[in-house]
Amino acid sequence: MSDLEYSGKVKGMKTLKQLIAEKSVTPASQLQADKDEAAKRAEIFTRSALDEENHRRTRVTTEPDKTVAHYTREPFEE
Q: Which of 18, 31, 56, 60 could form a disulfide with 14 if both were Cys (CB 3.0 to 4.6 A apart)?
């Protein structure tokens, strides 16, 4: 180890602050916020899917509309 000597700064090396400023590194606090937001979106999607599934199964019963005349065709006889 005694034969090592300093030859200068390695080119292309960046500090952590520079990497964060360039958005190539995401801070841990932002990762946690993104993870929470993704979990929230997944929960909302699951609820909406279940709601849609329940809506498809229910059938609204209504009485036929009496204001509309329904015509039927008589069988043709010769």
A: 18
Q: Kindly state the tokens that stand for 12.
A: 């292309």
Residue 45 lies in a domain: yes
Which of 13, 35, 16, 12 minimizes the C-alpha distance to 24?
Answer: 16
Cα–Cα distance list, 35 to 1, 12, 27, 43 (Å): 45, 31, 13, 12
CA proximity to 16, closest of 30, 31, 26: 26
For 28-61, the pLDDT digits (tens) are: 888 999 999 999 999 999 999 999 888 877 766 6
Task: Assess if residue 4 is contained within a domain.
Answer: no
Looking at the structure of the chain, the number of domains it has is 1
